[in-house]
Amino acid sequence: MIYLDYNATTPVDPRVKEEIIKTLEEFGNPSSNHLFGKKARELIEISRIKVAKLIDASPQEIIFTSGGTESNNLAIFGRVLCFDKGHIITSSIEHPSVLNPCKQLQRMGYEVTFLPVSSRGIVDPDDLKKVIKKNTILVTIMHSNNETGMLQPIKEISDILLEKEIPFHTDCAQSIGKVPVSVKELKVTMLTMAGHKFYAPKGIGALYIKEGFIIKPLIIGASHEKGLRPGTENTPYIVGLGKACEIISEELPLIQQHLQNVTEPLLKGLLDNPLVKLNGAYSPRLPNTFNISIKGVIADEFVEKIGDKVALSAGSACHSGVRKPSHVLLSMGLKEEDAISSIRISTGKFTTLSEVNEALNIILNMIN
């Protein structure tokens, strides 16, 4: 069985698993003042340092959450609910954990602009300039798209928003562990991380919030995580997230090179078939991700047929199961029949070249 669906989730790195298992013995409540609690608190703060280091942040700017969806919701609602009304800007290709909160805010009376993307799948910063208003209170645009892998011009957008003093949130769930991410370079106000996308377990993530920036909590409770995420901290998984970040900090160049080495031969081999078309630009793209349409194929049926040999994704694995065109691909101008025939392939650091070669043969045989 060959796994090529790393954008859906990643296996837990054995080194991360080992750290989690060891930490299960430290059962103390991190809020307790006795030795058991202090040991747990120390582990959490060490992990906070590791997470912050990966993205060039300060430890006090990291808030631990349950994952990408919670981080996105906390960033968006936490900011917007500081105002009775206002204008929000996002893109038409966001993950549902950004799109649906923005649609909910529309229903609540806030004004939301959904920016279009080009046929290459990229937001145009000039389009952003045109829609900024005096009452724009937040812009949220993903760093890389989960379906196509296309990298967005976050730095250019940041420069525009800094001049206007408008806060900027970016969803980096798919980027961490695949490309360098630095809040100092991106100059964003908030940034989302999801542990299970980079070899930590599901159920743990983080939100970077620039020091001094104020948002409201979505859950009301005690003062955990600066009062922004109340509830007793999940010490083992926080330690796992910290270990995963530490590994990426040390190994990212090697990981990037490996991803390119296993992804490019697969993509080129598939594109040699005249029935296969690449959706989006060849670059700038995540080194592990591409999206193709296969003429005459119904993607979800194809993925199911091949599923005992190769694990792929029809559209976005986060919200598949219903046969309808991907909102991302439709936003890029694809015809409905091409969008329905689209397949996402995403490799990972455990993918081998022999697996890629075998997968290529299996996929091409299925097509032909």
Tell me what the structure shows:
There is one protein chain. The protein has helices at about 15-25, 35-55, 70-80, 95-105, 125-130, 155-165, 185, 235-270, 300-305, 325-330, 335-340, 355-365, and strands spanning about 1-5, 60-65, 85-90, 110-115, 135-140, 170, 190-195, 205-210, 275-280, 290-295, 310, 340-345. It is of the alpha/beta class and about 375 residues long. The strands form three sheets. The protein has a seven-stranded mixed β-sheet with strand order 2-8-7-6-5-3-4, sandwiched between helices. Helices cover about 40% and strands about 15% of the residues.
What is the structure about, briefly put?
The chain has about 375 residues and is an alpha/beta fold. It is about 40% helix and about 15% strand.
